[in-house]
Amino acid sequence: MSNSSNHNIATLKNKKKLFLGLFASIMLVTAIVSIVAAVTSSKSPTNSNNDHQVAHAIIKSSCSSTSYSDLCFSAISAVPDATSKIKSTKDVIDLFSNLTTSAAQHSYFKIHKLTSARRSFTERETTGLHDCLVMLNETLYQLSKVYQELQDYPSLNKSLSAHADDLKILLSAAITNQETCFDGFSHDKADKKVQIIML
């Protein structure tokens, strides 16, 4: 494989880690802020221009405390009608959670399609792809738990810090699963071929 291919793989891997790092940063930092915001939220203005400005400010504020604030802001802002959906920091977390879940589902179905196509994968690659499916399935479950925890928060009988700790654990496990799957195909040329297909 040429240096260009290795560079492309490294670049793609870095982009994926960047996205996962962004997701973790947003979820960890804004979870606490959103819970507080949900408890103390007030009605937002009815003027659509004010709604847009308020949503923009909430997105900017939520993303500013992350490691990759520009990427966070652009990902959320790229969602059609995002400003009409954002009324609180919790909405930013919900929206980003949905984006992340969609990305994980896309990865799951892409790998499932690869394994169903009966390509000429080695036994190691086939086992690795199966393991990725299992981990992605677990990731989707963990992301659904994150979403449910966010929806249930005000009615839960646990402290704010306990709730934030639970979210951190679920998100950390989801991110670890994604990275483990991707890193499992980074050892030799044949593995890198599968890694490129997975992206």
Number of helices: 8
**Top-tier CATH class:** Mainly Alpha
Q: Estimate percent helicity.
A: over 70%
Number of strands: 0
How much strand? under 5%
Radius of gyration: 19 Å
Span of the ends, CA to CA: 17 Å
Largest sheet: none
Q: How many distinct folded domains?
A: 1
What is the helix/strand order? HHHHHHHH
Q: Give the CATH topology.
A: Butyryl-CoA Dehydrogenase, subunit A, domain 3
Large-scale geometry: globular
Low-confidence stretches: 31-45
Structural class, from helix and strand content? mainly alpha
Mean pLDDT rating: 72
Question: In the CATH hierarchy, what is the architecture at level 2?
Answer: Up-down Bundle
Describe this protein's structure.
The protein has about 200 residues and is an all-alpha fold. The protein has a single domain, classed as Butyryl-CoA Dehydrogenase, subunit A, domain 3, CATH 1.20.140. Helix content is about 80%, strand content about 0%. The protein contains 8 helices and no strands. The two termini are about 15 Å apart. The relative contact order is 0.14. About 10% of the residues have low confidence.
SSE map:
Blueprint: H1 3-40, H2 48-64, H3 69-77, H4 82-85, H5 89-116, H6 123-152, H7 160-183, H8 189-198
